[in-house]
Specification:
Number of helices: 3
Strand content: 25-35%
Order of helices and strands: EEEHEEEEEEEEHEEEH
Largest sheet: 7 strands, antiparallel
Helix content: 10-25%
Distance between the termini: 32 Å
């Protein structure tokens, strides 16, 4: 096969490819334009991948508070302080021990990053009662049941997903389970806190994403979290697996005894970064169109 290159009168380079007695003519200018369009598309895809990677590099964020009132309150006091009012900061469930070390304070959402904050030590638990898991409701249908004690039960109480938290020493991690089929969870220990069920995932369902590290912080101040109490803990997880849902999503967390119940609620919206990427893509397509 031989290639013969020559310049035509219009200065367009032609490539004559002679093979098996046939001659194919390729307009080099058209070929170059086609290649430029392909390169532009590749660059745009590269930018999407890079920016997506940047957005998934998370840091603890306390900007968008999505905590909601759990509906239980009392005007009674504990150790002279009103710990049972209609708020989450400096609050626990009625009749329970009122102290910063039991206080679950708030959920924050930054894009798909969920940060949970409390005076409660999520990693070590408190007074021999263990830390729980984060349960997620996406269909608005919960089935509170009057279960309590130490035995696991064959129900997810209406929740659809769980962030299964593992606080094994020096191995803080989590995975995501869709609560389908036969699922076992753990109800809270004290019967007066059954509306806080469940506190922990036990078994069943379908794994959505495997074990991954979670970000966490200890010794946070009031100024950093904008909560009272003097000492705070925080952790965050990625809710990106819920990105296809465009309606209200509910969040729930409590500890083994149910001393405090933390609830959250939000409706997903496209992130600013998503709009920016769409804009870049649109400009690229316009540029390609003009070249044509």
């Amino acid at each position: 096969m031989a290639l013969i290159l020559h310049i035509c009168q219009n200065h367009n380079l032609l490539i004559h490819q002679i093979t098996l007695g046939s001659i194919y003519e390729i307009d080099y200018t058209a070929w170059r334009g086609s290649m430029m369009r392909r390169i532009t598309i590749i660059v745009l895809l590269f930018l999407v991948i890079v920016f997506t990677g940047i957005q998934q590099s998370y840091a603890l964020s306390f900007t968008n508070n999505v905590t909601v009132y759990d509906g239980k309150y009392s005007t009674a006091t504990y150790a002279g302080q009103q710990w049972y009012l209609q708020n989450e900061d400096q609050e626990v469930e009625p009749g329970m021990i009122g102290a910063q070390s039991w206080d679950l304070e708030g959920f924050f959402l930054n894009g798909s990053e969920l940060t949970m904050v409390g005076g409660y030590n999520f990693f070590q638990g408190n007074d021999n009662f263990l830390s729980g898991d984060i349960f997620i409701d996406v269909d608005g249908i919960l089935n509170p049941a009057n279960n309590s004690g130490n035995s696991s039960v064959n129900t997810a109480f209406g929740y659809d997903y769980v962030i299964d938290l593992d606080f094994t020493p020096n191995n803080y991690r989590y995975r995501v389970i869709e609560l389908t089929g036969s699922v076992y969870t753990q109800p809270v220990y004290y019967s007066q806190n059954v509306l806080g069920n469940p506190w922990a995932y036990v078994s069943g369902g379908t794994e959505v994403s495997g074990w991954q590290s979670l970000n966490y912080a200890t010794g946070l101040t009031n100024a950093q979290t904008e909560f009272l109490g003097g000492n705070h803990y925080a952790l965050d997880v990625d809710l990106g697996f819920l990105s296809g849902i465009n309606h209200k999503i509910g969040l729930h967390y409590t500890m083994q005894c149910g001393n405090d119940n933390l609830m959250g609620e939000y409706t997903p919206v496209p992130e600013p970064g998503t709009f920016a990427l769409l804009g870049v893509g649109l400009l690229g397509l316009i540029a390609i169109r003009r070249k044509k």
